[in-house]
Design goal:
Blueprint lengths: L14 H7 L36 H10 L10 H10 L3 H24 L9 H6 L19 H6 L14 H19 L2 H10 L1 H11 L15 H18 L17 E5 L4 E2 H8 L3 H7 L7 E2 L6 E5 H25 L9 H15 L2 E3 L6 H8 L3 H7 L12 E3 L5
Helix pairs in contact: 3-10, 4-7, 7-8, 8-9, 8-10, 11-12, 11-13
Length: about 400
């Protein structure tokens, strides 16, 4: 089967992000109106947004995807058309589902282009999970790529009680595309590559030893594989068929405003998910959906040093961090200017933390307040509140006094 070389998507930072990304990671201390003894305080480093974001108009994105297809078209096999019609049986529902996952689809498209992987595989998560972040269950596949735990380990994805790399969109997309590229380099056939992804590399090698490489026809190789493996390739080609000829199935491919494109935002430190969501101007659930790899209520930078956010929210998140860094530096400068002595950054930070802990030492539960609301208010996690107050659930009573920080 002849394949065409893929045209990689141009990876360029959107004009909308240019000003934001150009901000220096270090925020200089604000100057006081009157000369004061200076205090050298290093503000938290806030990294610029990921410059690998693509913000092509949606129509161009679909055109780019079509141009990167390397396998058969709609009429290559009757089963391809059958599945294409099944996917689009309810055109309005199909369009709505596709619109909901379009940010993830476009992000995967960028990664596929980097690895020169056939464009059909951008649609692989649709076949696997409809791009949903399927949560892990014991010894079962997870994430929108439906990766088994043992496979995740071989792909270099961390999976433990705190973090599941299979649900990390950038990490998993890169791991999968790297694997698909390796399969194609070995087998030189994108159809066999798909079989290897679904049935396993060793199964495919055994089939090649017994039956040789499949010919160009039939399009769906007639190897003695499970029905699910044959259907996996058929479904992939069916989705590509809909993208090729949407009018044929009475559907319109949705558009994605540039502000909704996904970008990676570097995290300068760990923080509660509620605080990160507040900085980004998003609901906690929406932020968790995009960053489902974190299994607790905390963004742990030791597991992953970035968040995945829409462009508009990424800019707001970064501005919040910059503002927080600037405010902290200015407050520290005032604190060190009373006696003219140089105050070390460590002592300023310690004093600031001590004041904050004193102010937020306890909280009296008001009628109707929930544990999540209190955690959100004080920028801590519900797990921390439960641990500090020896709570075994989320039930609270009005008048109950909660400790808001560790006593240690």
């Amino acid at each position: 089967m002849k394949t065409r070389h893929l045209q990689a998507l141009p990876l360029a930072l959107s004009i909308l992000l240019a000003a934001c990304a150009g901000v220096s990671p270090q925020v200089p201390p604000r100057q006081l109106a009157e000369p004061q003894p200076s205090v050298t305080v290093a503000p938290p480093v806030v990294a610029p947004l990921d410059t690998g974001a693509v913000t092509l108009p949606a129509a161009d994105a679909w055109d780019q995807l079509r141009s990167s297809f390397a396998m058969a078209d709609c009429d290559a096999d009757p089963e391809i058309l059958t599945w294409a019609h099944r996917y689009t049986r309810n055109p309005q529902q199909f369009e709505s589902q596709l619109q909901a996952v379009l940010p993830q689809l476009v992000y995967v498209q960028q990664v596929a282009a980097q690895y020169d992987v056939a464009g059909e595989f951008v649609l692989l998560p649709w076949v696997e999970s409809h791009f949903r972040p399927v949560l892990a269950r014991r010894n079962l596949p997870a994430g929108m790529w439906q990766i088994m735990p043992v496979t995740a380990g071989s792909m270099g994805l961390r999976v433990d009680g705190h973090y599941d790399g299979r649900l990390d969109v950038p990490a998993a997309a890169n791991a999968v595309m790297k694997l698909l590229k390796q399969y194609h380099d070995e087998f030189q056939d994108w159809r066999v590559t798909d079989y290897a992804y679904n049935a396993g590399e060793f199964t495919v090698k055994k089939l090649i030893q017994q039956h040789g490489m499949p010919g160009d026809e039939p399009i769906i190789p007639k190897w003695p594989v499970r029905k699910v493996t044959r259907e996996h390739l058929t479904k992939l080609l069916a989705m590509a068929c809909v993208v090729r000829e949407p009018a044929r199935f009475n559907v319109s491919l949705p558009t994605l405003p540039s502000e909704q494109h996904l970008v990676k935002v570097a995290m300068p430190r760990s923080m509660p998910i509620a605080q990160a969501a507040d900085h980004a101007g998003m609901s906690v659930d929406a932020l968790k959906d995009l960053n489902a790899a974190f299994r607790s209520d905390t963004i742990d930078t030791s597991a992953s040093s970035y968040l995945l956010l829409p462009v508009s929210h990424a800019r707001q998140f970064r501005d919040a961090l910059l503002g927080q860094a600037s405010s902290s530096t200015f407050s520290a400068s005032l604190a060190g200017g009373h006696d003219g002595n140089q105050t070390s950054p460590a002592s300023v930070a310690a004093d600031t933390q001590a004041v904050a802990q004193e102010r937020q030492k306890t909280h009296i539960v008001q009628n109707g307040e929930s544990l999540w609301q209190i955690a959100h208010r004080y920028s801590v996690s519900t797990t921390q509140l439960q641990r500090w107050n020896h709570l075994h659930g989320n039930t609270l009573k009005p008048g109950q006094v909660l400790q808001i920080s560790s006593s240690h």
